[in-house]
Amino acid sequence: MDLEAPKIKSAEEFFYIQRNYQKQYRDNNRFIAICGDTGCTARNSKAILGSLDRCLKEKDLSETVGARFTGCLGLCESGPLVIVYPEEILYHRVIPDDMPEIVEETVQAGRIIDRLIYRDPSSGEKYAYARGLPFYKKQVRNLLSGNWKTDPTKIEDYIAQGGYEALVKAVTEMSPGEVVQEVKEARLRGRGGAGFDAGLKWEECFKASGRKFIICNADEGDPGAFMDRSLLEGNPHAVLEGLIIGAYATDAREGVVYIRSEYPTAVEKIKTAINRAKELGLVGDDILGSGFGIQIYLSIGAGAFVCGETSALIASVDGRVGEPVQKPPRLVQQGYLDRPTVVNNVETLANVPHIIKQGAENYRATGTEASSGTKIFSLVGKVNNTGLVEVPLGMTLREIIFEIGGGIKEGKAFKAVQTGGPSGGCLPASYLDLPTDFESLTEVGSMMGSGGMIVMDEDTCMVDLAGYFLKFLADESCGCCFTCREGISRLLELVQNISCGRGSLDQLDLLKELAEVVKDSTLCGLGQTAPNPVLSTIKYFEDEYRVHILQNKCPAGVCRALITFEIIESYCNGCGLCKKNCPSDAITGEQKKPHYIDKDQCDKCGICFSTCRNEAILKQ
Amino acid sequence: MKKNTVLGLEVPCGPNGVSVITVLQAIQGYYGYLPEEALEKAARELKVPLIDFYSVATFYKNFRLAPQGRREVVTCAGTACHVRGSEKITEEISRTLGVDISSTTEDGEYSLKCVNCVGACALAPLIIVDGRYYGQMTPLKVRRLFSDNPTKTEQTVSSGLSK
Q: Which domains does chain B have, with CATH numbers?
């Protein structure tokens, strides 16, 4: 790495430097990529990198074989993942001790290590090459493909792969108006949730005069969603490039990346990216000799879900309590420091370089008429292939969950999928063939949201889940509007009553009525969408609510007040394991004789149920 | 606020200089929490009403007005963790360590915090102890992790969890 690299002053200089980086990259095409995303790091991938480094040094291969600690490689369920280049051989569930063997066998001898390659959990088929995996095959990884080959801390890697070419094209060949036009024609819709046309927002801001701001919203608060984190950790320069192009198009000279503090790695990566871009003159004054310049600041959140709402976000950037304010005036008219401000989501910005590079028409070829391009989903919950998937907008839920996601864990039955985070809704199996685009999801009572997709099986109780989201939102309500502050708490109370067996059919009606009131009478998106999880679960799973109310039973066996544990005498061999592990001392019995559970003492934690080796514990 | 230091600590600037949030982040970064005395001093130094500090400090989840335990246990309550049973994990930690959510054990050893989502959903349900992630937790694994002999358990549990 050339630390003394001088600032790039023109397009010619950029392409000269890019050719150098590309040559370096091509010359070092033998490398091993190790996933350095939070999920794989949590499973010790840093130690894998250490082991690889040691091994390469011992064998004197450090010069010829590279090691890249990359962003998310996608298939988190099978982490830590390792890909050997240039063949793109994928190894999964790797441990540090596997590295010497990978170097000897695969890198030196060119053989594939059978025990480390991926096996499809449903078909049992083996896949050695990353691109062949069913998980990747159906995806269109426009935004995520950079993660595979890029060391996120190295701007050289990004530039070698065509990064910042779009910025060069925008500032040297296009006027801001032309950039706006291109993005408008591409029909780029905001990926943060609402799906507002990004080009229109830019156009309005461009027309305003004076000091303006552009803010990248990286406050990814939806539980179960990690698309933005992975983009920032895996390919921070793509987001940064989008932000700079956005600033050029709107003529904003100051940019802010607002990022949540729960993502420390992403904070580090974007910080490094900004500094490296500054060193090369891609951020700062007079970028590429165009006269356009931008200063970029980092603003780290302090933990409040409501700050994902743009007006609350702006209050937070300003250091105040994050309470949303009435719109209009809209932020493009009066935003941060009362100046015109554009707020774009991370993924929206990451799409921008692609639009500028390939042109609006080509970009629109992916996706549907009204929702163009791809969308990243974090596919999580009771699905086999938990991970990050990028698909063309409009792909059906079935394709995503069953073909890419590999179906439901442990062969259980699919029950529902929740999209759109706490503001979204739960959709039953009858909607599996619904295309995932902004309109279709909203029509059936859910929403696209930022891209969390939580799959649930027969063991998930929908009443409990509605209660979970309400509790989350009751905690996160800023307290500004009465109907949000009190209304959500009352909704939660009603749902909890039902899951405790104290519910009535009148309460179910009241729940529906109150949900509509909260929806209609709150100021910001948080309150307006808060009842969605309740309304959608009632709409599609009303029977389950009724069983709770009328029969005092929880069919999924989740709601504690409605379940009991019992030992089946004939199955119990008296091993004492349950007794030993019971935290409430509710189990009695002599060794080698059937044990008993004292139902009054039992607090239904379920430890006995999961520890019993003889399936002698009955949950009902 | 144009100044970029407070109590001798450096505070990062935004387009509008330093803000109440960045000042509090700097103070908490240094002390580990927000001591009353430090807040009073900082408020005088920056000529900001003390109430501004407290309103922000109590609104946002990350700010702490009391010192934390020597070890920090974080449980994830994201949706993916929830559907895979995180509630039972949190409960078990609470019971094993004798500490409520958002509080610290009497001996000042453990603080328990419950967060909305750490974005590592493949490991669900997961907990983080002093920055180290433990995935696919069960109430039993929790008990083993926090039993009396920490060095021994750490080894057994971590080897069991690394895959």
A: 5-59 (no CATH), 71-161 (3.40.30.10)
